[in-house]
Amino acid sequence: MASHIAAAPQALPKIVPVLLSFVAGYVDSCTFLALFGLYVAQVTGSFVLAGTETVVHDTGAVVKLLAIPLFCFAGVVTTLMVWRARRNDRSALPAALALEAALLIGLFASWYIGAPFSARTAPAVICASLCGIAAMGVQSAFVKLVVKGSPSTNVMTTNTTLFAVNATEFVMAWRARRRSPGDARLADEYAHVRDRFAMLWPLVLGFLAGTISGALAYGRVDMWCLLAAIAIVVALAAWGHWTATAAR
């Protein structure tokens, strides 16, 4: 199963992963401000919390502890969706994006019903948090499975390391090519490094732009800021459905 799924990523327009990276940063910023410092786009902090709970007991730790299995479960569901779509010779992108949009709508609905949030243990806060985490878990999985050659759109720790590595390699390859412009091997190496860096840096910039935009939008319109992220994902799902239908 795994080899079948991994063998068929899609070559999508470069703007698609950039928009998804923007959405991840945007939602992460909004939920951090609204949900008492919760990061929904990645679960690194939840692993740390799981370890420190043995000595420091946090009353609001339940959501962060649930984030790990929920993120994994979202990945399992998304993988099964991708596998089923490919067995039926269909694009998995529209369904995966539709699921992410539905979970973001669940986040918004929980926020709308429970606002204003006053405690991390309130049912609406827990529900909103879990919907946001699941949405980002879906995005993380389907980008890995569906988008050909794309780095992660929502975990910037690895991407920041890759940015430093790729930027350094790019400069070194550029300098080597300038010294020996007729060397075909150096020219190929430069092109490879350039293409890899060109795919990465827009995602990092997109995520950063998303975090800034999300914070500004939250400061101005509170919960309604989420509608922008939902609109982007819904639009991408509709585009994915249209292109998949047109390709048949």
Quick gist of this model?
The protein is an all-alpha fold and 248 residues long. The protein has helices at 2-6, 15-34, 44-52, 61-87, 93-114, 123-146, 156-179, 184-221, 226-247.
How does this structure look, described?
The protein is mainly alpha-helical. The chain is 77% helix and 0% strand. It has helices at 2-6, 15-34, 44-52, 61-87, 93-114, 123-146, 156-179, 184-221, 226-247. α4 packs parallel to α6 (123-146) and α5 packs antiparallel against α9. It is globular, with a radius of gyration of 20 Å. It starts with a helix and ends with a helix.
Topology:
Blueprint: H1 2-6, H2 15-34, H3 44-52, H4 61-87, H5 93-114, H6 123-146, H7 156-179, H8 184-221, H9 226-247
Helix pairs in contact: 2-6, 2-8, 2-9, 3-4, 4-6, 5-6, 5-9, 7-8
Task: List key phrases describing it.
248 residues, mainly alpha, 9 helices, globular, disordered N terminus
Q: Note poorly predicted spans.
A: 1-7
Estimated helix fraction: over 70%
Q: How does the overall form come out from the CA principal axes?
A: globular
| Structural class designation | mainly alpha
Rg computed from alpha carbons, rounded to a whole number of angstroms: 20 Å
Assembly form of the protein: single chain
Mean pLDDT: 91
Give the number of helices: 9
